[in-house]
Design a protein that fits this description.
The protein is of the alpha/beta class. The chain is built from 14 helices and 13 strands. It has 2 domains: 126 residues, Aspartate Aminotransferase, domain 1, CATH 3.90.1150.10; 237 residues, Type I PLP-dependent aspartate aminotransferase-like (Major domain) (Aspartate Aminotransferase, domain 2, 3-Layer(aba) Sandwich), CATH 3.40.640.10. 41% of the residues lie in helices and 15% in strands. The strands form 3 sheets. A 7-stranded mixed sheet has the order 2-8-7-6-5-3-4, sandwiched between helices. Strands 9-10-13-12 form a 4-stranded antiparallel sheet. It is globular. Bound molecules: 4'-deoxy-4'-aminopyridoxal-5'-phosphate (PMP).
Length: 380
């Protein structure tokens, strides 16, 4: 058995959701919305399931979805992808695995930023890569030139960046994008950009991809997910966009990972990506309202809430809130004693964790948020 997997536990998201189901806790742990998602997108996927082919679609994705992704990024982010530069995957998770397996060779050093999405490190290790971890600190979680310099070496081959950042809820600043671009160019490194939260941004902010920085077009893999764009996290339809030199090798990893993705879900995603701007603005406004509702409630209960510019997640700073418990103990207390499931942010660190921050998902109906807040009137 491979030690990368034998030493791993079940992901905290799965474990927390299972516990919430078993105990009846309100689940603000795992990041999924409790709405149905856009009815027209669902209807298109249902129509395609019944009326169109359910045999293997083309390996790199249906032409309709590949074109829709390229068109979508032209309209929404001013990016220019040819259809051949878009490869459809079964969720961003598969895209991450393909990109890491295709681009990392044994002994290559891969720069990762902590807090990190929990799939990254096992995938890098399984590929034989050596992770170089850059710690980010609350409340602003910023990347600095010094922190990058500390992990750089002549074996640096790749950086893996998540923006907007789950769980921090931050977006890369222009300075950080310039810093990362300089770093990649000077080390001749490739950037894998996990941008699944690109549309879930608030307060009029705009997501910008590292691929748009000077010199990065040929050395960046941009990863997206229909699950996050359409609040349909179970769909597992994603994609990776990259210049032909990279796309060719990414496609080879994908052909032996899943080979294809259900064609009706690709049809639904293709339809959805062509929706007018109002859908995206309304979606953001809805989540922003939920963010503000939970933030106001938590503040009212005496918790210090960290700034949140994006994603479905709000973080509480325990130390600043006067809670003399670490994040794991607090999350444990909250689920057992108050009946609310959350995620301790130390779970997003492989070493030297930040231990005073707890993540709550606000992508829930008002009644769910209000019920959680009522339960949280009990404090440890
Ligand atoms: N990357 C990040 C940062 C995520 O938050 C998630 C989902 N929580 C994923 C990747 C996985 O996306 P998908 O469900 O499309 O595989």
């Amino acid at each position: 058995m491979n030690p990368v997997y034998t030493k791993l536990g079940t992901t905290i998201f799965e474990a927390t959701s299972a516990r919430a189901r078993a105990t009846g806790a309100i689940n603000l742990g795992q990041g999924f919305p409790d709405g149905r998602g856009p009815e027209d997108v669902l209807a298109e996927a249902a129509r395609a399931l019944v009326e169109e082919s359910n045999q293997y679609p083309p390996m790199a994705g249906t032409p309709a979805l590949r074109q829709a992704v390229a068109d979508h990024y032209r309209v929404h982010q001013g990016l220019d992808f040819a259809v051949e530069e878009v490869i459809v995957t079964s969720g961003a998770t598969e895209a991450l695995a393909c990109a890491i397996f295709a681009l990392v060779s044994p002994g290559d050093e891969v720069v990762l930023f902590q807090p990190l999405y929990d799939a990254y490190l096992p995938l890098v290790e399984r590929a034989g890569g050596v992770a170089k971890l850059v710690p980010l600190e609350p409340p602003h979680w910023r990347i600095t030139a010094d922190a990058l310099a500390a992990v750089a070496s002549e074996r640096t081959r790749l950086i893996l960046v998540n923006t907007p950042l789950n769980p921090a809820g931050t977006l890369l600043t222009q300075e950080e994008r310039a810093l990362l671009a300089d770093f990649c160019i000077s080390h001749d490194a490739i950037a894998i950009c996990d941008e699944v939260w690109e549309h879930v941004v608030f307060d009029g902010a705009e997501h910008r991809s590292l691929i748009a920085e000077l010199g990065m077009r040929e050395r960046t893999v941009k990863i997206g997910s229909a699950g996050k764009i359409f609040s349909l996290t179970g769909w597992k339809v994603g994609w990776m966009c990259a210049a032909p030199r990279l796309a060719a090798v990414l496609a080879k990893a994908h052909q032996f990972m899943t080979f294809t993705t259900p064609p009706n879900l690709q049809a639904g995603a293709a339809y959805g990506l062509r929706k007018d701007r109002a859908y995206f603005t309304d979606m953001r406004a809805g989540y922003q309202r939920s963010r503000d509702r939970l933030a106001a409630g938590l503040t009212g209960l005496g918790y210090t809430v960290l700034p949140c510019a994006a994603t479905y997640f709000l973080n509480i700073d325990l130390a600043a809130s006067g809670v003399a418990m670490g994040d794991v103990a607090f999350a444990e207390w909250l689920i057992e004693e108050a009946g609310v499931a959350t995620i301790p942010v130390s779970a997003f660190y492989a070493e030297a964790p930040v231990t005073n921050v707890v993540r709550l998902c606000f992508a829930k109906q008002d009644a769910t948020l209000d019920a959680a807040l009522e339960r949280m009137m009990r404090r440890p």
